Amino acid sequence: VQLQxxxxxxxxAGGSLRLSCAASGRTFSTNNMGWFRQAPGKGREFVAAISWxxxxxxxxxxxxxxxxxxxxxxxxxxxxxMNSLMPGDTAVYYCAADLTNPYGSVASATGENGMDFWGKGxxxxxxx
Length: 128
Known about the structure:
Blueprint: E1 2-6, E2 9-12, E3 17-24, E4 33-38, E5 44-50, E6 57-59, E7 67-72, E8 77-82, E9 91-97, E10 117-118, E11 122-127
Parallel strand pairs: 2-11
Antiparallel strand pairs: 1-3, 3-8, 4-5, 4-9, 5-6, 7-8, 9-10, 9-11
């Protein structure tokens, strides 16, 4: 079972990137999923979460209106469209899944403790 994030890179402030998270080994269609990030010297923080049925999304205040989380359950994939990027968005971005509570409340996916399966991260660097 694996989650693999991709799509990171170096972009200028104001630019856009689209992160993808490919899930393999099992279906994640019944699980809430999310994106977290960790900047140098800081702890990992919540970015966005999406419910198993795509009906509900949550965003950190710092990215609201700029980032959009989505998923394609048929492809077993999770995405994060990031627009109007700022240097403060520079971090390693991780996708994660809540495997413990299938069909559960997506609110639990807004914290690290609510996620029990993590992929390797992808680096996003925004230059000023």
